[in-house]
Write a structure and sequence with these properties.
Strand 11 (about 110-115) and strand 12 form a beta hairpin. Among the domains are: about 5-70, no CATH class; about 140-200, Laminin. The relative contact order is 0.06. The protein starts with 6 loop residues before the first strand and ends with a strand. The chain is rod-shaped, with a radius of gyration of 38 Å. The chain is built from no helices and 22 strands. Helix content is about 0%, strand content about 35%. The protein is mostly beta strands. The model is unreliable at about 1-30 (pLDDT under 50).
């Protein structure tokens, strides 16, 4: 009689019950295991070659040679399963299964990170703007080189005051009805002149 390949009938339990996940339930699967089987390329990640070029994968892996990890629940938002239960998340997403929206650098000043058309973005309160809600809004604007540092509040350069940095400051007051129009510069009434409008013009 010709040689007979020894065969061994096994019952294998695939997976096990894990509460709270959507992993497959454990079921008994019968298959024929060939002790002389060879798999080329070889089975990866502790997979077992059960028949020629046929691998039986250990829990957490799949594919012809058990080359792919699988994650349960699946990686969300385009995440890649690196190893069983471990996802690599694309920019803008985080958490174990890439299910949380994350904004790079976070959202400041009460901004909320959310997905807008699949892209993580900070939604800012009405008084803030910028990619991280880092810029305050001054509805009145900040003139003369002023910078908006908090909602409605300008930081003014030397020589300017007021909510919008619109009021010039003269270190010495303008006289005779003159008006301070820029730092230390007076605009005088027609009958006066001088740096502080202190000189009366002579009539001819």
């Amino acid at each position: 009689m010709g040689s007979v390949v020894p065969l061994l009938l096994l019952a294998v339990l695939v997976g096990f019950c894990s509460g709270g996940s959507d992993a497959p339930r454990g079921v008994a699967v019968g298959f024929v295991f060939d002790l002389r089987a060879t798999c080329e390329p070889p089975c990866e990640h502790a997979g077992v070659c059960i028949r020629n070029n046929s691998c039986f994968c250990s829990r957490g892996y799949e594919g012809d040679t058990c080359q792919y990890a699988n994650c349960y629940p699946k990686c969300k938002n385009g995440g890649e399963c690196l190893r069983p239960g471990k996802c690599r998340c694309p920019p803008g997403f985080g958490g174990r299964f890439c299910h949380k929206v994350t904004c790079d650098g976070g959202c400041w000043n009460g901004g909320e990170c959310t997905a807008v058309n699949g892209v993580a973005k900070c939604i800012c309160p009405s008084s803030w703007t910028g990619s991280r809600c880092q810029h305050a809004i001054c509805p009145q604007g900040c003139r003369n080189g002023g910078v908006c540092v908090a909602p409605g509040i300008c930081s003014c350069p030397d020589g300017w005051l007021g909510g919008a940095c619109h009021t010039a400051v003269c270190s010495q007051p303008c006289l005779n009805g003159g008006k301070c129009i820029s730092p230390n510069k007076c605009r005088c009434r027609p009958s006066f002149s001088g740096p502080r409008c202190e000189e009366r013009k002579k009539s001819h």
